[in-house]
Amino acid sequence: MNNTQLKSPPPAFAEAKNPRQKARAAGMDPNRWYVVEYDNAIKAGEVKEVTFWKTSIALYRGEDGQLAAMRNICPHRQLKLTHGAVDKCNLRCAYHGWSFSREGKLEDYSHDSFGKPLIKRQVQTYPVQVRYGLIWLFPGDPELAGEFQIPEIPELTCADPWANFVADLTWGTHHSMVMDNICDFSHAFLHRKYKPFTDAKLTHHEADENKVYLTYDTFMAGGRISGIFVDRNRVNTRHIELCYEYPYQWTNTGDSIKNWSFMLPIDEKTTRVFFLFYFDALTIPFISMKTPKWLTQLVLNIAKPLVFKPILMEDGIALEAEMEAYQNYWDEPPIELNPVVPMFQRLTARKWEDYLNRKAPTVAALAD
Question: Would you say the pTM of this structure is higher than 0.85?
Fold first, then answer.
């Protein structure tokens, strides 16, 4: 008989003993707005499944063009409603044809000769908005949706918006690892081929109950391609600001190159991330003038698959390897040279703990 004992899994949130373990077991507070899909990914009459922290949601667009979202489960036989079809502005289950309105109310069950379905509750629905070409969903308490705001990006809503693009990737890793990665500039070696940043030195960091703010002195965009188009005479590319503004992250280089990162936590081991980059202007070799917006957009469209996506894919490879390693070595002492990384982890853990504490009295009341 093999006496080798199987490695125990990482601890649950309540049993975690340090900030790293706490963060790796934390979900994300559903009482925030989260990006779940591109606006143009769902046409009129289409339905698509999206997942927020192990909760399957049916996201669909009625024939009138309006979006709606509801829990992806029919109360009859519990089939996913995404197996069904959009019928005008309702969502109809594939099995018995039960039709639910945007408000989650059963409006048609198509076989009334068998009696009226005894449904005590309507299907749970979720607030939905479209901003910056992205679909935002509020997976928590709908009554709280008005208390929380989608990040304001005036550079994209002004009369002359900046050139921009969105890149998204789905990685087999926990969302807290993603945040550690995109804010920690000590991993320049990973990106030695493209050199998005080099020689980073942490110059400032601070935190409060909602965010972690930090700055680096570093050389930005030093790659063979990216370095050509950055206007170093006009933009300070030796300094960058970053902020983990729960649950989002943003960066700012010289008030000319900016980025927001929006995480969609799917489960403990899967995260989809939407990276929204926007640029004031670039420079064209041998031309000193500031590029017009249309030309900046053209250059960005070309650079997205050639530069930005490959860099992000390098991060994904490292993060998935880190996730696998954590499953086996979660009890190893955490070693962090960058002092901001534990700050990210404490913020993630604290927000999740706050949510669980708020949720507990409600669950207890329902049980009574």
Answer: yes
User: How far lies 78's CA from each of 48, 60, 74, 93, 95, in Å?
Assistant: 17, 18, 5, 10, 10
In whole angstroms, give the CA distance from residue 139 to residue 127.
8
pLDDT at 222: 86
CA distance 355 to 23: 14
- What are the backbone angles phi and psi of residue 219, rounded to the nearest 5°? -95, 110
**CA 258 to centroid of chain Cα atoms:** 17
What's the residue count for the chain? 368
pLDDT tens for each residue of 175-199: 999 999 999 999 999 999 999 999 9
SS3 label, residue 226: helix
Nearest-angstrom CA–CA distance, 74 and 122: 10
Report the CATH number of the 42-146 domain: 2.102.10.10
Instruction: Report the candidate in 231, 226, 233, 204 with the shortest Cα–Cα distance to residue 216.
Output: 204
Backbone angles phi, psi at 61, to 5 degrees: -120, 120
Token duo for residue 201: 């030195």
Q: Where are the beta strands (DSSP E) in the chain?
A: 34-38, 47-52, 55-61, 67-71, 85-87, 90-92, 99-100, 106-108, 128-131, 134-137, 163-171, 197-207, 211-220, 239-245, 248-253, 257-267, 270-279
Fold assignment, 152-350: Naphthalene 1,2-dioxygenase Alpha Subunit; Chain A, domain 1 (3.90.380)
Output the CA torsion sign for 328, 334, 337, 339.
positive
CA distance 69 to 51: 11
126 half-sphere exposure, CB direction, 13 A CA radius: 28
All structural domains of the chain with their residue ranges: 42-146, 152-350
**pLDDT score, position 363:** 47
Tell me if 22 sits within 8 A of 330, measured CB to CB.
no
CA angle at 175 for the pair 169 and 177, rounded to the nearest 5°: 100
